[in-house]
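Write out structure tokens for Ammonium transporter.
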Amino acid sequence: MDLDLLPPNLKPDEASPDWMNKGDNAWQLTAATLVGLQSVPGLVILYGSIVKKKWAVNSAFMALYAFAAVLVCWVGWGYHMSFGEQMVPFWGRPDVALSQKFLLDQAFLGMFPNATMVFFQFVFAAITLILIAGALLGRMNFLAWMLFVPLWMTFSYTIGAYSIWSPKGWLAKLGVIDYSGGFVIHLSSGVAGFTAAYWVGPRLSKDRERFPPNNILLMLAGAGLLWMGWTGFNGGDPYVASTDAALAVLNTHVCAATSLLTWLLLDILFFGKPSVIGATQGMITGLVCITPAAGVVHGWAAIIMGMMSGSIPWYTMMVLHKKIWLLRQIDDTMAVFHTHAVAGTLGGLLTGIFANPKLCRIFYLVDDWQHYIGFIYGIQSKKFGAGAKQMGVQIAGILFVIGLNVVMTSLICYLISLIIPLRLSEDEMMTGDEAVHGEEAYALWGDGEKFDNSKHNSVYGVEEFPQVVPNHRREVEMA
């Protein structure tokens, strides 16, 4: 190295200090990028293609905006509220996470700089807001969404993250097991999305009755990015390129595949057709269910979790949804209640049952038999009280996250409604992207020109060209 090229006061080893592990740092940045790709372009593509074509731009843009807005809020105050100095037992003190001294110093967990940790945790915060958007597609006022994102990230996400993931959080001290966000991200987004959907109100009746995807193949591309990105989602949470990270990655994909196949089989048995949209939903519920347990359960438990995540959310979505009045009344476009709230709750409970104490000690780096022991291992090792206590802590975490998100999401939606309508007008919802953004996703007429409804309504008599979709119950039930 030519020392003359270095700044005057910089030592040659300061770029890679003794405390930093280059392999861990490289893996953590890679994992963070994989999670980021789940959102941009993963969910941007999935949302833009799984809705009616008149909502393609709006749906994709809601995801893209949330990703950018969360990052600015995260470095401005959100990171320290989630992982910084304690303000109250469930919340950190807001502070800016941009100073050079802070970003280049060692993170509170892991042998890499704070800059890496801030980026890694940001992509988790961002995808949580984007998942919430899935419940609100096809009718939420975009300006209201612009206010909702920073408010919810500040007053809901940071509380859940600090309570469960910060070493100083009250649920963390109790010993709750949430390996990679089954509570903080998926249960939170499922409950918050369902609650916000209540406050925003439903889509137009015609959209609720018929809401076919505009491009199923493109939807699969987005879903594929989501699935493969989960390698970083769960593989990055040991904060080290370790054997536990490798186990978490394999468990994640085994559970997702088992869940997809289980959902597919149920669709064939009860509806007679193998639905690709149903298989995608099964994939998602499997990924959600394994997330709180990924690195602390054995492979056989991951398979059992996949079978349950492919069947229980299927039952709540396809059967209970029609029988429970509240579920019928609230218009949850992407069914995030079933795919994230139900699957997240299921994953949290199954983690309390199947968590292996030896794997937990590897992950948490503590030798504590009073915490982090699954119920079945408590029975096996004749520590029934410790296993029962772990189940109690898991249930406490679930109830806390549900209560937090119902209350905070409701307050945020109410406050926004005092400033601006949460829901688009009837005329705007009739038109969609053109009315909201002045843009449309597809050119459908001539050489790149837009299809003009006003000239052809008398010929076709419909708002858009007829679309060939499977005669499947799901086109009404879910996105």
